[in-house]
Amino acid sequence: MPYVLVSTQIRLETGPTMVGDVYSDPAIMNYLGARKTTMLGNNFSEYHVDEPPRLVLDKLEKIGFRMVTMTGVGQTLVWCMHKETE
């Protein structure tokens, strides 16, 4: 059951948008046009796109993902997307 977490900082709601981590499906990250980055001081990688979250969510919906939940955590907005598999 694939899940994708999409998040952005409130002050960056026009992008960039974080769309995955090191364990994310490479095919989905490629479809989104995401680039893998490691922020200075972190020992893990994340995938980012320059587009705002709304465009990322639209792209995910086109390939069968649906929003499960959305929340704000401090200054971060987070959307959890899920796609049913057969």
TrEMBL record:
Tell me where the signal peptide lies: none
| Organism of this sequence | Salmo salar (Atlantic salmon)
Please report which protein family the annotation says this sequence is part of. Belongs to the GFRP family.
**Protein name (database record):** GTP cyclohydrolase 1 feedback regulatory protein
Give the subcellular location.
Answer: Cytoplasm, Cytosol; Nucleus membrane
> Cross-referenced Gene3D superfamilies, in alphabetical order?
GTP cyclohydrolase I feedback regulatory protein GFRP
Keywords assigned by UniProt, alphabetized:
Cytoplasm, Hydrolase, Membrane, Nucleus
**What processes in GO biological process is this protein linked to?**
negative regulation of biosynthetic process
Superkingdom of origin: Eukaryota
Supply one GO CC term from the record: nuclear membrane
Q: What is its main location?
A: cytoplasm
A molecular function annotated in GO for this UniProt entry is: GTP cyclohydrolase binding
- Fetch the Pfam families from UniProt: GFRP
